[in-house]
Amino acid sequence: MNRDPLRLQAVTTLPDQSLHLVFEDGFEANVRLDDWIANTSALQALADPALFSQAHAGEWGTSVQWITDELELGADNLRNLATEQAGGIGHERLWVWMHECGLTQQQAADAVGISRRMLNYYLSGSRPIPKTVWLACKGWKAEQTEAKHKPRRSRTMRTGVVAAHA
Fold this sequence. Notes:
alpha+beta, three-stranded antiparallel beta sheet, 8 helices, 6 strands
């Protein structure tokens, strides 16, 4: 049976509005939430240490909950944040890149020269995204943006250039 990389097994609160997370696939990380709490009005109640200390894994391990059905954070978002805070490339960056570029999974895989299966491993968070893949995504997007903004020569202009060289 495959272990779900986005399902939590355990949650422990730490000082400074941090959590220690253990995911089903064995990935463990400490994640700081102080910036999210300070900058997100829906999370500002978590500034109260008594409430923050009540964090626990939600039903099915898909979230961290403080107040059931009222105050929780998705395990997928926390996994992404933990990866980013550790200096890696979170799986949500690929989803955003695909959305911004209007790409299907097959188009995205072709754009950066990987198989669709490997892309799905990255999108699901079950494999870390290599920096080379992320750089290929950024390069592809830059190339597409440049091509859209490059001035196109008119047909008469091209004909004139050819005639001048004849």
